[in-house]
Design a protein that fits this description.
single chain; 383 residues; alpha/beta; Aspartate Aminotransferase, domain 2; globular
Length: 383
């Protein structure tokens, strides 16, 4: 059997198991109503939690910046790619989340790889919740440190692992809001353990920044915690509506990342016009209490309706609302049925989620209306 035929057989097996992934083609801007594969649908797929991805102020910021900044950065940050716009956003972000300094990355994946591999090595140990994002797991593996995972949200298990560790450097890595379940990590308890056992704490707030905390400042504000051992990562393509990621921490941590973070050092900087848009986004986020209140009301409306219909939900107060189906094929079938009704909700299957927990992942946005959620509930009822 040739290499190509083996690959073809493996693809056929994925299809048989209901695990083959395919892309949909979006035509037009992101929003509550989108055109996908030529069909106009009501979308509950996006992580655009505040509805900023197509906000006119962000578009205007890019248009105004384009004549003086151009399109591409042209070089890495440590050569000639670090633009004044990048620097202005880093400073504004650090001030917004009340941390000393910040560093801009191209993606959240690259940011997580950077932090973990720069801070721990072969003589270190990484402690991770089993439901963490793949980027945190890959970061642990690439660091060559010992990789210890604990059952989801099990603080007693984390305490046992930390107490038993003899590693020279320790780091706990955790999602703030778990992307497939929607629940929020107990950052207060995790930080207390990090303080007790002298471990760094990397918090991936991809799905919390802009939504949680005072003025959308994220999970640190939500729990009102501060510590010099916290390394805070926020992505900028979700609630912020643009692209990229940013790490905020103590000044010494940022200086160290500038020296050692390979995914920062050895890549071209993001286009500076995106930082111009991010500065506009940060201003909107700070004043978006009405959007966050509307989003919370939609979460309550959706959960109440789904529970009345008898669907299985897991505990989540966030914009991420998983409806647990179980079977891969059943989840796909339900997603396709909703699509015939003009509603797009993705079916999430292993390995993204554990076996036998295939689900519909409903993502709400402040761009949705009460009528949009009512329409989704009606369709779920029919399905």
């Amino acid at each position: 059997m040739t290499a190509l035929s083996r690959l073809t057989n493996q693809i056929a097996a994925l299809t048989e198991q209901g695990l083959l992934r395919q892309r949909r083609l979006l035509d037009g801007a992101q929003g509550a109503q989108v055109v996908v594969d030529g069909q106009s649908v009501l979308s509950f797929c996006s992580n655009d939690y505040l509805g900023l991805a197509n906000h006119p102020d962000l578009a205007s910021a890019i248009v105004q910046a384009l004549p003086t900044m151009g399109v591409g950065a042209g070089a890495s940050h440590l050569v000639t790619g670090h633009h004044a716009a990048h620097h202005a956003f880093e400073s504004a972000f650090a001030e917004f989340v009340a941390l000393p300094r910040a560093l801009l990355f191209s993606t959240g994946y690259m940011a997580n790889l950077a932090v973990v591999t720069a801070l721990v090595g072969r003589d270190g140990e990484v402690f991770a919740d089993k439901l963490n994002h793949a980027s945190l797991n890959d970061a642990a593996l690439l660091s060559r440190a010992k990789f210890s995972r604990y059952a989801h949200a099990d603080m007693a298990a984390l305490a046992r692992l930390l107490a038993a560790s003899r590693a020279a450097q320790k780091i706990v890595v955790v999602d703030a809001v778990f992307s497939m379940d929607g629940d929020i990590a107990d950052i207060t308890a995790i930080l207390a353990l990090c303080e007790q056992y002298d471990a760094w704490l990397l918090i991936d707030d991809a799905h919390g920044f802009g939504v949680l905390g005072d003025a959308g400042r994220g999970v640190l504000s939500h729990f009102r915690v501060q510590s010099p051992r916290i390394i805070y990562m926020a992505t900028l393509g979700k609630a912020a509506g643009v692209f990229g990621a940013v790490v905020a921490a103590e000044s010494a941590v940022i200086t160290w990342l500038l020296q050692k973070a390979r995914t920062y050092i050895y890549t071209t900087a993001t286009p500076p016009i995106l930082s111009a848009a991010l500065l506009a986004s940060l201003s909107i986020i700070a004043q978006a209490d009405d959007k966050r209140a509307h989003l919370r009301a939609l979460v309550t409306q959706l959960r109440t309706g789904l529970l009345q219909q008898g669907w299985t939900l897991w505990a989540s107060d966030t914009a991420i609302q998983p409806v647990i189906i179980g079977s891969n094929h059943a989840a796909l079938s339900l997603s396709e049925r909703l699509l015939t009704l003009g509603i797009l909700v993705p079916a999430i299957r292993p390995p993204t989620v554990p076996q036998n927990t295939a689900r519909l992942r409903i993502s709400l946005s402040a761009a949705h209306t009460v009528a949009d959620v009512a329409r989704l509930l009606d369709a779920m009822g029919q399905a």
